[in-house]
Amino acid sequence: MSCFRALIRGLVAFAFALAVVDAGATSGTDPAIGDATTQRLLALDPAHVSASDVRDVLAHAPAPRIILIQGSVAFVNMEPFAEFLVAMGYPAERLKDPDGTVSRSSFGSSTELAGTLAWYYEREGMVPLLIGHSQGGMLVMRTLHELNGEFGQDIPVWDPVSRAALPRTSIVDPRTGAQRPIVGLRVPYAAAIATGKLMRVMLGQWTMLPLLRKVPDTVDDFTGFTLEWDPIAGSFPGAEPYVATGTAHVRNVTLPASYHHIDLPNAAPLATNRATREWIDHYTPGEDVATAPPEARDAANLLHAADIWYSVRKHWCLEAQRLAQPRGGA
Hints:
Blueprint: H1 2-26, H2 35-43, H3 51-56, E1 66-69, H4 79-88, H5 110-124, E2 129-133, H6 135-147, E3 158-159, E4 164-165, E5 170-172, E6 179-181, E7 187-193, H7 198-202, E8 214-215, E9 219-227, E10 243-244, E11 249-255, H8 274-281, H9 302-324
Parallel strand pairs: 1-2, 2-7, 7-9, 8-10, 9-11
Antiparallel strand pairs: 3-4, 5-6
Helix pairs in contact: 5-6, 8-9
């Protein structure tokens, strides 16, 4: 038995090492994190990560994968939002599926997505972050409820490389080295952008109607973005907010009426404009800030882009710090 436990510990340590190597290789940095960088990483305040912190510290640390899920209309995908994240400093390879795409269909299976999250967690030590636009937000919510056991207790591990279910419903938890079921796995951060109930009715997604605004404990930090007077999502002033059913930290953000549902993923130009990029770098949720810097000519989609980037770099920092702790990867 002691030999078996030693083998498990060795395998988990090897998986953690692969995660570090992969993160470094895909971000174009040295995969080995030196002691000085580790100390700088552990000294960061996740709630206040600056642009220089991203460039000089986080860029040299492992990053959790981000799964971007597009809406129901295929030509409106999440590629521009992926370009925004990369331009802000996120490692491009951590946004890609095994086939190289960065925008996932929202007509996929929540069971497969939940199994995919477990597959990545077992191998990399970090659960991917989830961001969905329109119907993609519905798939985010359905996956969180899937992980909560709402649709069954047995979720098979899904291999995204071979695109096949594996013959098991549990993984070796890289934090403990023990077997654990997929049900109950927690996502560090998830977001739903302009996801309404109207299209759930029109598309016959009846099971999600009572669950769409209820955030279970299978996510640590969740943000729901609502666009008022949105005829596509069916959202109007005073629409039902997202609420936590337990311990999840949930925020509701109302987007400016000047934004347009179909154009919401188009955030790439914000990272290349000096004024909007500076505003994004200094944005903190809850602070009394204007909706756009006065010198920016086109600041559409600025609010949710800044809010998501704040949360992404916060959880990038948190996950990297956890792995850097002496017991974090073992």
